Structure prediction request, 185 residues.
Amino acid sequence: MQHKILKEASVKMDRSLEAFQQELGSIRTGRANPGLLDVVDVDAYGARMKINQLGTITVPDGHMIAVDLWDKSQIHAVEKAILASPLGLNPSNDGKLIRIPIPPLSEERRKELVKVARRLSEESKVAVRNVRRHAVDEIKKAQKDGEIPEDDAHHLTDEIQKLTDKHIEKIDEALSAKEADIMEV
Prediction:
């Protein structure tokens, strides 16, 4: 019972952290990053697909993303999807390769992106704390029902708090790294 509560809490907190890291990856910085295109869905072959399922994404330099499609007939569909995305990017193609220049961000836009990252960080911390609250409630219920002795309940509550602190620290570290990345000129 005790291990189940701790393991469940750990798995849920890990998921919150992973979701936060994925969302951070979709925030544009001034540098090219293939993960930037993860949010773009393309209508191809009668289905919604990710660009990396249609070709190879490379970063030839810090301000350019290149997409080399395996099926060149999909170039216009991919280009249209990139233009329609909220990324604000303008792709161009030469019939073989799609080039996506990554323009430098203005100071104002950088500050807006930092605010977005901080908001996502706060939402993730709330999610982790909710997992902690739920686990502690389960521990109290199990103690009340006589399934867990009082000493074990206190020990388990301390373990859940340590787990929470560790995940919140990882969220803060990821946020700091992303802020530095966004503000880098």
Summary: The mean pLDDT is 88. The helical segments are 2-25, 75-84, 107-144, 150-183. The first strand starts at residue 41 and ends at 44.
